[in-house]
Amino acid sequence: MKLCHVLTFLGAFLTSFVLGGRGGLVSSLLGEVSSVLGHLLVDNCYQTSCPQAQEIVREITWSHTSKNSALAAKLLRMHFHDCFVRGCDGSILLNSTADNTAEKDAIPNLSLAGFDVIDEIKRKLESECEKTVSCADILALAARDAVSYQFGKSMWDVKTGRKDGKISRDTEALANLPSPLSSFSTLKQRFSSKGLSVRDLVVLSGGHTIGIGHCNLFSNRLYNFTGKGDQDPSLNSTYASFLKTKCPNLAATSQVDMDPGSAQNFDPHYFVGLKQNSGMFQSDAALLTDAEARQYVDLLVDPKVFNAEFAKSMLNMGAILTGNGGEIRRDCRVVNS
């Protein structure tokens, strides 16, 4: 067993021990164990077992991103949606079966894309280093590399050593994923439940600087905000007029750049627009309703600050683990049998 996976196994053992305890022991130690689990990931887990692993992930990801600039947002979102359900265990990659509807088929995940890129990377790694690199690690690395393509260098570290989960349920995706319709209190609770701070919430929202949004997820702000055929009064009127040209009615199904004018560039322009009340989703606008969150928004308009803080928050999010064990899948879409 690889050193990094030994550490993950130890974390799972500790969690099982605590969960098997009684009363106060569980409540007092579970929090400590969950924080320790995030530190069980290591730098370059595959340095000995598959030294070319990160290079393979980068080469294939960059090859696809060079032909499809939208891939960066797609893989970043997929990684986010994976980590918020059962931790970063690759469960988002599993297909549904005859007796189970998987996470990827939950309504919030139906617009996810990029699974074919993960499959290609996995096939290459299996041919080079069989049963060694987890799908969860591949997704974490590919998300980083797709975003980093425009810079020609890695924009944040990715610690590795994750195991692939064996369970994927659509109901858990619905219960755990933050909604674009969420209030600040709901967002804060969802992030806090994963061990993430308000700072992480605001910083990671900056991922909306790339990618597209679907009209049905925000058109209520344009046409029926309180159920009376009204517009969200907090929405910048000029921006609202622009959105109405893209989404002419509540039933529109069009796609719109989340950060107009900068949707292909990973930069802090999202926060510039947010300060002008031009956040697309209610969950974006919600960041301005909290004093602490607004302070972070003000800081993050600086490119150097944004890049540095995004790196830290991606490390925090990538360390969300369940400690429930797992495997190294041979095919990212199905559990080993």
From TrEMBL:
SUPFAM superfamilies: Heme-dependent peroxidases (SSF48113). The keyword Repeat does not apply. Keywords: Calcium, Disulfide bond, Glycoprotein, Heme, Hydrogen peroxide, Iron, Metal-binding, Oxidoreductase, Peroxidase, Secreted, Signal. It catalyses: 2 a phenolic donor + H2O2 = 2 a phenolic radical donor + 2 H2O. PROSITE patterns: PEROXIDASE_1, PEROXIDASE_2, PEROXIDASE_4. CDD domains: secretory_peroxidase (cd00693). It is an enzyme of class 1 (oxidoreductase). Residues 40-336 form the Plant heme peroxidase family profile domain. It holds the Pfam family peroxidase. Its EC number is 1.11.1.7. Residues 1-20 form the signal peptide. InterPro entries: Haem_peroxidase, Haem_peroxidase_sf, Peroxidase_pln, Peroxidases_AS, Peroxidases_heam-ligand_BS, Secretory_peroxidase. Its main location: secreted. Its cofactor is heme b; Ca(2+). Binds 1 heme b (iron(II)-protoporphyrin IX) group per subunit. It is found in: Secreted. Belongs to the peroxidase family. Classical plant (class III) peroxidase subfamily. Belongs to the peroxidase family. Ascorbate peroxidase subfamily. Removal of H(2)O(2), oxidation of toxic reductants, biosynthesis and degradation of lignin, suberization, auxin catabolism, response to environmental stresses such as wounding, pathogen attack and oxidative stress. This is Peroxidase. It comes from Coffea arabica (Arabian coffee).
